[in-house]
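[retry 2/3] ThuA-like domain-containing protein: previous attempt timed out, resubmitting with same input.
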Amino acid sequence: MNLLLMSGGRHPYEESTPVLKGFLESAGHTVTVREDAEALTDGTLNKSDVLIFNTLREGDMALDAAQQNALKGYISSGNGFVCIHISGCVPDSWNEYGE
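[retry 2/3] ThuA-like domain-containing protein: success.
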């Protein structure tokens, strides 16, 4: 499977993301790691079978409207979305994320 692993933010993602990437690759997956949310709108997301959030996207790292719509469309199309650790927290600016 092709996995897109979104990382970054105010947490020790620089420590956990490489471990997670290695684990997933050892299971036979192809993993693309990105810290920039443009991955949701630049075509990278559409090449992925599953999106994994190992990131907290709020404040100055919040997703903009186009990125939110891309994520909603991706999930609505039946693709996988996995939130790890604090990624499951609902951003103040996007209540729909929790749904």
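[retry 2/3] ThuA-like domain-containing protein: The first helix runs from residue 13 to 26.
[retry 2/3] clearing retry counter.
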